[in-house]
Specification:
Strands 1-4-2-3 form a 4-stranded antiparallel β-sheet, with helices on one face. The chain is globular and about 45 Å long. It is of the alpha+beta class and 132 residues long. The chain starts with 15 loop residues before the first helix and ends with a strand. Helices cover 34% and strands 20% of the residues. The relative contact order is 0.27.
Length: 132
Amino acid sequence: VEPVKDQRGRVKKPSKRDRDRAEAQDQGVQLEKDSPGSLDLAAVDNIVESGFPLFARCYRDGVQRNSNLDGAVRLRFVVGDDGLVSVVEDGGSDLTDRQVIDCVAEGFYALRFPEPRRGDAHLVYRIHFNAG
């Protein structure tokens, strides 16, 4: 999973205002506006939640490296005609541990979704982790 980069190709670090705005807009799962296909978002949310034990393990590993690790993993992913995840990429995560982001992203490949209607479904999912 590649980090978000600015126009010059440097890794872009979101500002507090950008993070707050993204957090307000990103609640769980969203279908991207230009997605050719669609899925029931409640079903997607339930399926992703089934992966939370794996994602929690990814985060616990990160907390062992940094006890104050806090932030959101925001992933863009594509569910193909067969219900399998074919692509996962960072969609603007602000968690500072790339290993946690990559681990969570890899976990998305293990999820199985219903077949999308009208083609591949392009989605965004946000998971917030807090060391508190």
